[in-house]
Amino acid sequence: MANDLIYQDMQGCSERADIFKLKERKKLDLTEILIWGIMIFNLLFISLIILSLFLKSSIGDVITVIKDLNTLRSIKITISSIFCSGVMTIFIGVPFAYVMAQRRGKVYRIINMILNLPLVMPPTVAGLALLMAFGRRGAFANVIRAFGLDIPFSFVALIIVQVFVMLPLFTQALRSGFEAIDQDIKEAAMVFGAGEKELLFLIYLPLSIRAFMTGLIMACLRAAGEFGATMMFAGNLSGKTQTLSTAIYILSQRDLGQSISLAVVLILIFLIPLLVLELKLKE
């Protein structure tokens, strides 16, 4: 009799455990459904906005706008300026990321905060700041004039704007890559006599190539899409400082259809490095 009661108690516990697991599974399923629902909403939200540009354009319109001389000039200026800015960003950003990855303390946190300021500055504020620094009446106007330079509304101004917005993205990505390297590797290299140059070029950079390329691609795309600061500091001179993003704005003032087609061209150009980033570098 006593054994039967114990058996019934055990069976009851087992049933309650099964019910509890079933309830937990139902809760998990609801969570999964909610997560997937938000993901699908997010995907549709972004896709439909971008798709609206493609629906308002056609292949014929895109070909026509690509053949336009101003478009070809803006593509040439965009690519050449991004190339120059990318080289400068690498030259400045690599040593900076290397130092910041190995230093701790409040001073370096403040330095890091200053470097990240361009990320949160409104583009018009960034353009105004650049104008006040390097403009004809800027803080460094006398020094710049002494070298016989006139920076605002020139190709050099375009490079400065792009480097200004590229540096935070590139250095943050590369710094994360440097910080992920095992300290044992660094210590082993130092035991065999590696100095700072060997550590940077033979250890840190080769082991952080994905972070390097990811940061560079994202920074280049950010700079190519820059508009507000470019307009304020570099202007929108065809064949000189007009990029694809500023050309779209000018076209939208007189021909909305052509500006939409040029926006489609810009998105298609941006898709190529993004596909490389997602399908190759993140594998």
Automatic annotation (TrEMBL):
It is found in: Cell membrane. It is a multi-pass membrane protein. InterPro entries: MetI-like, MetI-like_sf. The chain crosses the membrane at residues 33-55, 75-101, 113-135, 155-178, 199-224, 259-277. Residues 75-277 form the ABC transmembrane type-1 domain. One of its GO terms (cellular component) is plasma membrane. Keywords: Cell membrane, Membrane, Transmembrane, Transmembrane helix, Transport. The keyword Transmembrane helix applies. The keyword DNA repair does not apply. One of its GO terms (biological process) is transmembrane transport. Pfam families: BPD_transp_1. Its main location: membrane. Belongs to the binding-protein-dependent transport system permease family. This is ABC transmembrane type-1 domain-containing protein. It comes from Orenia metallireducens.
